[in-house]
Specification:
It is a single-pass type II membrane protein. This protein has about 425 residues and is α/β, with parallel strands linked by helices. The chain folds into two domains: about 150 residues, no CATH class; about 190 residues, no CATH class. It is about 55% helix and about 5% strand. Strands 3-4-5-6 form a four-stranded mixed β-sheet, with helices on both faces. Helix 12 packs antiparallel against helix 13. The protein starts with a helix and ends in a 13-residue tail after the last helix.
Length: about 425
């Protein structure tokens, strides 16, 4: 028996040698490829401009993608609070039907309905939903931020009965954010950071309201002035902008009663959880470096936007002033440490050598150094406190009233101690450069 087996093996080997060699070669290549991918996960490679490829080989901790029972418990608690707060409330908010429908997206194949709210990760979700429509599994960050509205399909084309049926038959989710943090984020992106479109849309009107000056550029609206103008638009129910108005106005949570409520404060964990709930866990594989990719995407978007609008910015603000504002915005957002000074001079800003790629590379290097040496999370919180210390208590109380539905329905503290007391006197204006 042993001899027959031996002969059989020799016979197979004789005729199948090429197949075995092929299998061995493929296996070796597979192992080599896996090792290369693992090595790539430990580095950041940022492609700047043509011919300019900067590789930053800093080790970054990978985001923990495991979803445990804690997230599910938190999700249930948020939904229970929504049901409790919406008891005997037919609806909240003042936005019209068209605004509501414009913020709702439906993905039929995945039985998913998403309500997007500006300044709460909506750009991320709108890019991801594009991939769901195409059945493509790749990083949402591979789509440029300014292309997030491509092929955007909202409820606007749906008749009343049709979209009510969609809401009944499919699972629904939204993401929310602490109203104070969201309001500051809107100011940083739309007013403080060079943004001529919003300087004209909001800034000039804010100046006309607070300073009684007309035909003004609107580029230097202070945070206090923006808050006062925002309160005015809410009280008058006029000239309201989606980046600032309450989340409950967009998504009608008491009418829709969402199945999942994600928070910006726990964005990564909540994204993973919701994807798995919709049987889309395979997308988590392209989000393994979530935080890193998000920061690099934000940096790229900020720099690209400045490059595109630079000529319009200089009608109101110098290039040097615009670049310094971007640097400070990234410090307030906790991307660059406050200890790292702006590395360019006024002369540099007019020098052709200070290209978009050079500026972007400087920001990335500053972020890497900041991440390794400083507590950026604590710095972000400190700047939030400093910003609201510039707002009088009477004005803060008006904000409470405007956002009261958001505070109650989504479980945020309307009067957090860290913003209300103790109030520091003669605090420095973090927006002055």
């Amino acid at each position: 028996m042993k001899r027959k087996s031996s002969l059989l093996i020799r016979k197979v080997l004789k005729h199948k040698t090429s197949l075995i060699v092929t299998i061995c070669v493929c296996y070796s290549l597979l192992m080599l490829t896996n090792n290369l991918y693992e090595a790539e996960d430990r580095r950041i490679e940022v492609k700047l401009a043509k011919g300019d490829n900067t590789e930053i080989s800093k080790n970054l901790s990978r985001q923990d993608t495991s979803q445990d029972n804690d997230t599910e418990t938190i999700m249930k608690s948020r939904k229970q609070n929504l049901v409790k707060q919406c008891y005997n409330r037919i609806n909240v908010g003042r936005s019209d039907e068209d605004n509501f429908k414009a913020h709702m997206q439906f993905v039929p194949d995945d039985k998913m309905v998403y309500c997007g709210i500006e300044k709460v990760g909506s750009t991320f979700w709108r890019r991801l939903i594009q991939l769901l429509y195409k059945h493509e599994i790749r990083s949402p960050y591979s789509i440029k931020p300014w292309d997030c509205m491509n092929n955007y399909k909202s409820f606007q084309s749906q008749k009343l009965d049709d979209y009510h049926d969609i809401l009944k038959e499919n699972s629904k989710f939204l993401f929310v954010r602490d109203p104070y943090s969201r309001l500051l984020s809107g100011y940083l992106d739309k007013i403080f950071s060079p943004n001529p479109y919003y300087w004209n849309l909001i800034g000039s009107k804010a100046v006309a309201f607070t300073r009684k000056q007309k035909n003004y550029c609107g580029h230097d609206v202070t945070f206090l002035e923006m808050v006062e103008y925002f309160i005015h638009t809410e009280e008058q129910n006029k000239d309201r902008d989606g980046h600032f108005l309450p989340a409950t106005d967009h998504c009608r949570p008491c009418l829709v009663q969402y199945d999942y409520i994600g928070n910006m404060e726990t964005f990564t964990d909540d994204v993973y959880f919701i994807l798995k709930e919709f049987n889309l866990g395979n997308y988590t594989s392209v989000l393994k470096d979530f935080k890193r990719d998000s920061i690099l995407d934000s940096i790229s978007d900020t720099v690209q936007t400045f490059r595109d609008v630079r000529s319009m910015v200089t009608r109101c603000l110098s290039s040097y002033g615009g670049l310094k504002r971007i640097w400070r915005k990234l410090q307030i957002r906790g991307i660059i440490a406050e200890q790292i000074q702006f590395p360019f001079t006024s002369k540099d800003s007019t020098n052709l050598k200070l290209t978009t790629a050079t500026f972007k590379n400087a920001i990335i290097n500053a972020h890497i150094e900041s991440k390794d040496r400083y507590n950026l999370k604590e710095q972000k919180r400190k700047y939030l406190i400093s910003a609201y210390n510039l707002i009088p208590i009477a004005t803060m109380n008006k904000l409470q009233k405007i956002f009261q539905n958001d505070f109650q329905i989504f479980g945020y503290d309307k009067r957090p101690d860290y913003l209300y007391q103790p109030r520091h006197k003669n605090i420095a204006d973090i927006f002055k450069l």
